[in-house]
Amino acid sequence: MKLPITTLYTGLAVALAVGLLHQAQATVPVPRVVEVPFKPAFTRPLGGREILARPGQILAPASLLRTEKPGRLQVQLANGRNFRLGGDAVLQLSADGLNLEKGQIIAWVNPGQKGGSPLKIRTRTATASIVGTTVFIEATADSLKVFSWEGHVQVETETGRRYDLRTGQQLTLEQGSWLPLRKLSQPEAAARRQKSILLNGFSTPMETMTAIDQGLGLTAQPAQPAVP
To answer: Any idea where the domains of the chain sit in the sequence?
Structure first.
């Protein structure tokens, strides 16, 4: 039976529209999971159920990410910036940054993507802003550590106090008090570089690793086995 010409045209139009939609979805940058080197790691869309994280998984706006030791994962945001999460962590994506409830995160901006608005990482007690740099944050119920692996990190506390961290400097909150900025010695930095569960243990290259080693005065070293 022959279909009316209008029906054929309508079917072709729908098929074309669907194809263009799929093509547009494939080309529009969206947040996605890059790697899950260690499990368990989970994702949960807003209002949805929690599922195991998997490489290539697209993350909906306001998704919640969670890891349990030794679980770790790496995510690339829509703007090309990356972060790794681990250490019994809970983090929620937001329209203008990341909300870290607890755990460890290392976030960086690729050398070729410097500029633009800062990537903001919010915690219960402070917000770190990075542009063209690499930052490590560890948040617990009663403490916070912010460490600049390389570059410039701005930190603003919940009381409005501001700190500027440079390569190798750490800001620490302990028992409700902010300690003075401290620059790690080269041996301390080298030990942390080798033992970090977020710098090591991933197969996906980290574009700022060379800058980290150079900035801390370390020679490029093969990755050591990660210590959960």
So the answer is: 1-30, 32-215
Instruction: Assign 18 to helix, strand or coil.
Output: helix
17 φ/ψ sector (left φ>0, alpha ψ -120 to 50, else beta): alpha
What DSSP designation does 149 have? E
Assigned token pair, 139: 């948040």
Considering the four listed CATH numbers 3.30.565.10, 2.60.120.1440, 2.40.160.210, 2.60.120.10, the one that applies to the domain covering 32-215 is 2.60.120.1440
Q: Given pLDDT bands bounded at 50, 70 and 90, which one contains residue 225?
A: low
d(CA 117, CA 130): 9
Sequential DSSP letters for 154-187: EEEETTS-EEEE-TTEEEEEETTEEPPPEEPPHH
Is the pTM higher than 0.70? The answer reads: yes
